[in-house]
Amino acid sequence: MEEVKKISVNKMPKWFKLCMAAFPAFFIIVFISGVDNDFYFLYPTGEYIVNHGFPVKDFLSMHTDMSIIVQQWLSAVIYYFAYNLLGKVGALGVVCICYFALMILIYRFAMLISSNHLVSCLCATVADFFIASGFMTTRPQIFTYLIIVTELILLEKYTRTGKIAWLVPIPFMSVLQINLHAAMWAMLFVFMMPYIAGAIKLNIPKLGIKQEPCCKLIPILVTAVITFAAGFLNPYGIKAMLYITTSFGYDVISDNIQEMIPPSFANDSGKWLIAGLALLAFVTLIYKKRKFTTRFALLFAGTLALGLMSQKSLAYFHIAGIPAVAYMFSDIDLTLKFTKNTEKKDKRTRLILISLILIIAVAGAAVVALRGPENLTEEDEKHATTYEELDEVCDILSQHENGEIVLYGGFNVGQYLEFKGYHPFIDGRAELFLKDNNGVEDYLTEYRDFKTGKTYYKDFIDKYDFNYLVFQTKGEEPVINMLERDGDFEKVYDGEKIIMYCREG
Question: Which of 71, 73, 309, 353 is the most exposed place for a label (fewest CB within 10 A)?
Answer without folding.
Answer: 353
